[in-house]
Amino acid sequence: MNIQRADSLSELVERVRSLEPFLDSLGDIVSLVDPGMRYLWVAASMEATLALRRSEIVGRECFRLHHAFSSVCPHCPVSEAMSTGKVVERELYSKDRKKHFLTRGIPVFGPGGHVIAAFEVTRDITAMKTRHLETEAKERYFRYLFENAPVGIFQISMDGKYIAANARQALILGYESPEELMEVVNRTSVKVAHYSSSESREAVLKNLMEHPNLWTTRDTIFRRRDGSLIDVQLHHRMVFSPEGEMLHIDGYMEDISERKSLERKIQQQLDIQQKIFDAVPLHLYLKDEKGLYAVVNQSYADFKGIPKDEFTGKTVFDIISGHNAVIAKAEDDQVLATGEAVLAEERIARGHDGIRQWHRVIKNPLRDVEGRIIGIVGCSVDITQLKEALDALRESEQRFRSLAEDMPLMISTTLADGTILYANKAYCTCFGVRREDLLGRSFLEFLVEEDRRKARKSIAEQTPDQPISTLEEHVVVADGTLRWHRWMNRAFFDSEGRVQFLQAVGEDITERKMAEEAILAAKDQAQRASAAKSEFVANVSHEIRTPMNGILGLSELLLETELKDEQRDFARMIHTSASNLLGVLNDILDFSKVEAGRFELNILPFSPANLVRESAELFSPQAASKELSLHLRLDGALPSLLLGDPVRLRQILINLLSNAVKFTKEGSVTVSAKLLREGEKNVDILFSVADTGPGIPDALLADIFTPFKQGEAFLNRRYGGTGLGLAISSRFVEMMGGFLLVESTPGTGSAFSFSLTFEKGEERRLEDVKNQERESLPVRTRASDPTVLVVEDNAVNRELVRLLLAKAGYEATLAENGREAVDILSKKRFGLVLMDIQMPVMDGYEATAVIRDASSDVLDHTIPVVALTAHAVEGFRDECLSRGMDDYLPKPFSSADLLGLLYKWLPMKTRPAAPEPAGAGAQAASSGQDVFDAEGFFSKLFNDREEGKELLELFLESFPEDIELLGQAINNEEYDKAAKIAHTMKGTAGNACARSMSQCAKALQLAAKQEDREKTGRLFEELVAIFDKVREAMLKEMER
Fold first, then answer.
1. What is the CATH number of the domain that holds 296?
2. Within this chain, do residues 737 and 616 fall inside the same structural domain, yes or no?
3. Tell me: the pLDDT tens digits for 528-553?
4. Which side of the chain, N or C, has fewer Cβ within a 10 Å radius?
């Protein structure tokens, strides 16, 4: 029946229905639609597809039922078949794209050849499609593996030509691509291109033919394109047809060059390890999983007297004899069976020489990477000497246990919680408790509560690094009395750092504690007495210095007046005696502070070379006057900067130099500084002062550093002094960590030396020192007001300061106490306040506090205030500065000291010439000590006027040159150079006793360091003016 042609749709439908049983039996989904895509008939399979009955489907549009579209589906093969009149087949898929269908549209023709309907035949091809896609994926995957495999894959024909090869194969053999590899090699053959001369392809083929279709592996060497050789691991097989015909060779290869290189290195390492294995003095061996010897080291082979290679494959019974072999075999079996190590602490072993030894044997299982036991690692250690030592130790322990029982000290062993495990006889006796009553109790029970907490804390703080602690404890013994015990506890720890037990040794220190308390009480009383003494010394110092300031100052002023020669000599004697008395007082104060322990070192950066040189320069005039050679020896390796107390170090050297120059009549004095040791942060320096003086008799050396003694009484009478210089120097050296030593030979000379350790300074610190020196200029400088307020309750000192100020060209206003000073400052402004400390009504501290108080009536709260005080106690200057004062000038002070202070805080003043008294000319006006201290200058030279005049003449010749150089440096604004020249001039003027000029040079040096152009120029003019007066005074002195 032809169902593709019908006269009408109804006829067509009838025909289809007549074939319905057949069409329903088909596996495909069959339906008939009209040109409007409405179902005319559907097979039963459609009901299952749409979950509708056939009657519900017929007459409805297919695109609405299947896809809920409003029009024909795009690319519909059925619609296309009706429009084209041809059968159209197309693959379609479900909405979720999980199902694939092959749909065919078949047109049905009516009268005149017109299409009146179409059949839709749909077959589910999901499974087939999936298989097809999987096949394609597998093919792509295997192609990808082939092309990107990390090994070279190839197929070779029986005539040695490449059939296929991948990129890795080409790369291994030195070709850029598989195509190039196949093109080049196939010109000849694989054998010619790749096989090395040592390889036989025929032998390889024979081996493959003997193992048809089986993979074989071998390591070989192939030749690369450039002729170099490469290590490869080759895997290949011969492929045969079912009839047994050889078809081709499949294979793959790996580049094992790195592995082979590594294997060679490993072999080298194994050789080294074998050498180390053999070098170990222990007996080492390896056994396999059957307990047979595999490897032994040389030490074990020597012990048994058997060559190493003869051990391989031997049983324990072949090597060891007797009962020891049975024990060793049982241990091996246990290790192999359980996988656990076996340790035999002590075992007798005999070597090939028959000598018996004690060994410790350790056997461990040998495992592979997967943890399976593959053998045994054994080690045998000769412990013969250790066992003998332990036996001796046990005997010794017994002896020491007996000794511990008889010791008078308490000995105990306790747990970490205090439980007593052992206590010796002395322990039981001290606590008054029987041993059996002590054991098991905690020693903490016997402590007072506070010490109990301390003991627990001490135990908790002990560590393996710090296992020992010492405690003093208050304990309650059996009779209820309190005793003091001192214990040293030694903690023992386990592998995790926890305290296991404590070994303690103690003693009863009750009597000693009582003695210490008595000593502390006595010490406290002594300290109070010492403090009272120090206060007394400070007060006495103040009371002495105050009138002495008047004596020194007035004697200076007296020397500037018109005097007869005899009167001038008397005045000089007064000034010299007062100066000497001040030196004695200073020595006594220094020694008193050292003895009281109140002397503290002031650590500052300093140059050791400069300090020694400057100390020696002070004695150059005196040495020259006695025709002594003064030698200076400085080690060139001395560091440029150290940290120490330069003031005390200079005082020590000056004391030693003073004695050397004073006692030496002829010859020389040598001062030296030598570097003994230089570390990373510290240096040791040896200082020494040697002379060719009379020396010190051996009988007097013992007292050389004893206070108030000078070795020989005649030296006291001849040279004077307190006898404290060397004692103070010795104490200073000891405070710095050294010892002052002396070597002396009567008639030859003496040498004093000491070595000190200093911390190295840094260039940064040197710069800090320079900055500090720059910053030391006052911050409250007043450049326009030369008036001074003098606050002093002592009338003599008040008048003295007024006279000195007047001679320096400054206007002074006087006040007797702090209250008067505050009242005056509330009405008038001043440039500077000179303030005494101890005054009635209101002291200096209180007055300064009012001045600084912004709410007070004082006009200038920032006015510089300088303390004038007779206090000489260490730290008093810091006390003054902390109370709001700006500077400190201790009494007694000289006119030069006061002038230097004025230069520092006030504008420079040129002192007006005093009116010339009748008959005196200009002598009185130019002989003041602030200009030129003739008496001081010649006293340095022991009044040798001829020598002094020569030195003055030299000074007057050289100093103008320095002034000229200084002026040039200032004009050229070379401030560093100017500062250095001013520094030199300061020292030269000071040595020449031209104090005002020295102070002016010092101020100029500081101004140059600050690069203060205006101030530097003004000070230079002042310096030139002062030098004119100095020269005039010196020339007049030289004419006398």
1. 3.30.450.20
2. yes
3. 776 666 667 666 666 676 677 677 77
4. N
Q: Which residues of 764-789 are buried (b: 16+ CB within 10 A; e: fewer)?
A: ebeeebeeeebeebeeeebeeebbbb
- Same domain as 788, residue 762: no
* Mean pLDDT in residue range 556-563: 75
Q: What is the CATH number of the domain that holds 702?
A: 3.30.565.10
Please name every residue paired with 765 in a beta bridge, in sequence order, or none if there are none: none
Contact 562, 924 (CB under 8 A): yes
Task: Kindly report, residue by residue over 249-263, the tens digit of the pLDDT.
Answer: 999 999 998 888 888
So what's the pLDDT on residue 594? 65
For residues 742 and 891, state if they share a domain: no
Mean pLDDT of the chain: 83
| Residue 664, domain member (yes or no) | yes
Same domain for 682 and 809, yes or no, is: no
* Separation between Cα atoms, residue 796 and residue 41, nearest integer Å: 147
Closest residue by Cα to residue 658 from 738, 744, 748, 724: 724
Q: Give the separation between CA 653 and CA 635, rounded to whole angstroms.
A: 17
Q: For residue range 153-167, list pLDDT tens digits in order.
A: 999 998 889 999 999
Sign of the dihedral defined by the CA atoms of residues 860, 864, 868, 869, in that order: positive
- 296 plus 384 within the same structural domain: yes
Point out the least confidently predicted range of 401-410, 543-552, 707-716: 707-716
- 912 has a pLDDT exceeding 90: no
If one counts the domains in the chain, the total is 7
Q: Determine the structural domain holding residue 345 and report its residue range.
A: 280-388
Domain finish residue from 859, 890, 905: 905
Helix or strand holding residue 672 (H, E): strand 668-678
Alpha-carbon dihedral of residues 659, 662, 664, 667, nearest 10 degrees?
Answer: 100
614 inside domain: yes
Q: Can you tell me the distance from the alpha carbon of 28 to that of 121, in angstroms, rounded to the nearest whole number?
A: 6
What CATH number did the domain enclosing 1025 receive?
1.20.120.160
Measured CA to CA in angstroms, residue 989 lies from 211, 894, 963 at distances of: 116, 16, 12
Question: What tokens were used for 988?
Answer: 């030269």
Say if residue 676 is in the same domain as residue 748: yes
3-state secondary structure (DSSP) of residue 1012: coil
- Among 697, 696, 688, which residue's Cα sits nearest to residue 741? 688
**Distance between CA atoms of 219 and 206, rounded to whole angstroms?**
17
The rounded distance, in Å, linking the Cα atoms of 678 and 657 is 27
Q: Where is the domain boundary, 461, 487, 513?
A: 513
Structural domain contains residue 328: yes
Minimal CA–CA distance to 670: which of 628, 622, 712, 703?
628
576's enclosing H/E stretch is helix 565-595
pLDDT in tens, 771-820: 443 333 333 444 346 799 999 887 767 887 888 888 778 889 999 999 99
Helix residue spans in 151-310 (DSSP H): 167-172, 178-185, 190-194, 201-209, 257-279, 298-304
3-state secondary structure of 690: strand
d(CA 1025, CA 114): 142
168: Cβ–Cβ under 8 A, 6 or more apart, which residues?
Answer: 148, 149, 150, 151, 152, 153
Q: Which two tokens stand for residue 535?
A: 């206060």
Structure tokens at 829: 């402004």
Q: How far apart are CA 929 and CA 1022, in angstroms?
A: 17
pTM: 0.34
Distance CA 438, CA 149 (A): 82
Question: Is there a single domain that holds both residue 762 and residue 791?
Answer: no
DSSP state letters, 849-867: HHHH-TTSS-S-TT--EEE
Task: Say if 576 falls within a structural domain.
Answer: no
> 100 and 39, same structural domain?
yes
Tokens 């062993």, located at residue: 413
Q: From CA 239, how far away is CA 214, in angstroms rounded?
A: 9
